[in-house]
């Protein structure tokens, strides 16, 4: 459930430099002439985003997630707080009668005024950074694309504009964090860990509030009624969302804000707080904790550096905004993506030099594969194949598809570079990095390995979901493509 890991496709963007461009340009969606939509930008509306009709398996899956996803998060966090991160100890104690659910719940900290104050301040600060400070990083950082950018064409043919300033928000937030830690001392760097479970309840309150509001908004006052989908099933509508791009005013976009801020900006702050707590408890920070902080920070900074590219991911291009994104971004992402750092607070691991070096190299190799694979695809699309991939002109398969208006379009599917090795090798790089985070924690407990297990399931599902959509879109041309590139993730294996 993370926006950071949702990778997808298409359209181009147009840069409008400077804060004045944001003020002068129309922030509301504009209608694009369907006759001017480029190849790859238009797909039959009925195949976009979430389903129109819900079968029994989808409904069962939705109800399962709505019931058990919050319990999973609670169970993982509680197991660290009360059982030293053992996933089996709570079950064993309940089975043997040594403990009960009421005992566990009685020892769980509740929401506090302190936690509520921290959380409200945090979210408000991120809203201010998102809404009030136009991006200036693109003016002095070579290669960085920020400021006002266009998103993808929606199923109804709308094009939203976004103020891309996530990197700026991340930099300001972390500069203030370090300034506080070393100069001002307004609060302890361990503040997040010290209030971790009370903050969980605050995050849940926000997640459910924004998800419920998004559902009501979709029914009563949608941003664009033509981009809404209703199945007639309340649970599916609540989880997967009704509105495609819910907004408040011209610039507050629910998808962009809740995926990156407060969730991903918080990711690195949470890890820093865990490192500070390890220092407080044991007098030093282990190399395993340093590796987790560095490798995950690399991923987070990469996300914000390429935030404009995020506008082309499956979140923006296909998913509607419901509980899946709203609650997931507020709770699932910050609490389960940071389990390695949390584990290391309770079980400090000092890796041998060969082990630490292997983890570092695996993490960096995964990042390089992920980034270079995406770069190759972007370069191929921007140049229409007139480029060099690994020193050669790329090979590709010509394909065609029919859009909703009945017009036939032509497109190209690259079969060179990383994309000639496997159809989703960017996901492979993602999984290599995920495994590196987990390996940094040693082999004593299962809990820190939840992340790579979850990411494997998520990305394999993404592969299948993406390929089903492409198969329906390209037909026999897709069969030619899969024959040329037979494996999905692992060359020669899968």
Pick out its properties:
two-stranded antiparallel ribbon; 7% strand; 7-dehydrocholesterol reductase; 494 residues; 2 domains; disordered N terminus; 20 helices; three-stranded antiparallel β-sheet; EC 1.3.1.21; lipid biosynthesis; cholesterol biosynthesis; mainly alpha
Give a verbal description of the structure:
It is a single chain. With 494 residues, this protein is mainly alpha-helical. The chain has 2 domains: 3-350, no CATH class; 362-494, no CATH class. The protein has helices at 19-24, 56-83, 89-96, 101-106, 113-132, 166-184, 191-194, 196-220, 234-240, 254-282, 287-305, 307-310, 314-317, 323-336, 339-346, 353-383, 418-421, 425-439, 450-474, 476-484, and strands spanning 30-31, 147-153, 158-164, 247-248, 252-253, 396-402, 408-414. Helix 18 runs antiparallel to helix 19. Mean pLDDT is 87; it is low at 1-49. Its main location: endoplasmic reticulum. It is a multi-pass membrane protein. Its EC number is 1.3.1.21. It is found in: Endoplasmic reticulum membrane. Belongs to the ERG4/ERG24 family.
Topology:
Blueprint: H1 19-24, E1 30-31, H2 56-83, H3 89-96, H4 101-106, H5 113-132, E2 147-153, E3 158-164, H6 166-184, H7 191-194, H8 196-220, H9 234-240, E4 247-248, E5 252-253, H10 254-282, H11 287-305, H12 307-310, H13 314-317, H14 323-336, H15 339-346, H16 353-383, E6 396-402, E7 408-414, H17 418-421, H18 425-439, H19 450-474, H20 476-484
Transmembrane segments: 56-77, 167-184, 196-216, 282-301, 351-370, 434-460
InterPro entries: ERG24_DHCR-like, Sterol_reductase_CS
Region (Disordered): 17-42
């Amino acid at each position: 459930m993370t926006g950071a890991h949702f990778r997808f496709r298409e359209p181009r963007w147009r840069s409008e430099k400077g804060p004045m461009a944001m003020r002068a340009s129309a922030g509301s969606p504009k209608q694009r002439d369907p006759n001017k939509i480029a190849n790859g930008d238009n797909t039959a509306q009925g195949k976009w985003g979430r389903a129109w009709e819900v079968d029994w398996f989808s409904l069962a899956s939705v109800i399962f997630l709505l019931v058990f996803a919050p319990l999973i998060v609670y169970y993982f966090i509680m197991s660290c707080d009360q059982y030293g991160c053992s996933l089996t100890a709570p079950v064993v104690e309940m089975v043997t009668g040594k403990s009960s659910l009421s005992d566990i719940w009685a020892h769980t900290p509740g929401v506090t005024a302190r936690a509520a104050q921290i959380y409200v301040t945090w979210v408000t600060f991120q809203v201010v950074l998102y809404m009030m400070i136009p991006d200036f990083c693109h003016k002095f950082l070579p290669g960085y694309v920020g400021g006002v950018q266009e998103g993808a064409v929606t199923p109804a043919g709308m094009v939203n504009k976004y103020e891309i300033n996530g990197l700026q928000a991340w930099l300001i937030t972390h500069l203030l964090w370090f300034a506080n830690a070393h100069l001002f001392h307004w609060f302890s760097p361990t503040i997040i860990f010290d209030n971790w479970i009370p903050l969980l309840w605050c995050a849940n309150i926000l997640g459910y509030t924004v998800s419920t509001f998004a559902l009501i908004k979709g029914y009563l006052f949608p941003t664009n009624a033509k981009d809404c989908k209703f199945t007639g099933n309340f649970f599916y509508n609540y989880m997967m969302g009704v509105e495609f791009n819910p907004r408040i005013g011209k610039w507050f976009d629910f998808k962009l804000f809740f995926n990156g801020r407060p969730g991903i900006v918080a990711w690195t702050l949470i890890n820093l707080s865990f490192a500070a707590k390890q220092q407080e408890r044991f007098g030093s920070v282990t190399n395993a904790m340093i590796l987790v902080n560095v490798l995950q920070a690399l991923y987070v900074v990469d996300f914000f550096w390429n935030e404009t590219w995020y506008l082309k991911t499956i979140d923006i291009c296909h998913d509607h905004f419901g509980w899946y994104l709203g609650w997931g971004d507020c709770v699932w992402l910050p609490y389960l993506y940071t389990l390695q750092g949390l584990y290391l607070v309770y079980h400090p691991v000092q890796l041998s030099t060969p082990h630490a070096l292997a983890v570092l190299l695996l993490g960096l190799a995964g990042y390089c594969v992920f980034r270079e694979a995406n770069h190759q695809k972007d370069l191929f699309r921007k140049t229409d194949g007139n480029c060099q991939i690994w020193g050669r002109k790329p090979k590709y398969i010509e394909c065609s598809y029919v859009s909703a208006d009945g017009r036939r379009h032509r497109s190209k599917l690259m079969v060179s570079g990383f994309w000639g090795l496997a159809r989703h090798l960017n996901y492979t790089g993602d999984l290599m990095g995920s495994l590196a985070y987990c390996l940094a924690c040693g082999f004593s407990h299962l809990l820190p390995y939840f992340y790579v297990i979850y990411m494997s399931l998520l990305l394999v599902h993404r592969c299948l979901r993406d390929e089903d959509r492409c198969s329906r879109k390209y037909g026999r041309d897709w069969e030619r493509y899969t024959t040329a590139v037979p494996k999905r993730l692992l060359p020669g294996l899968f």
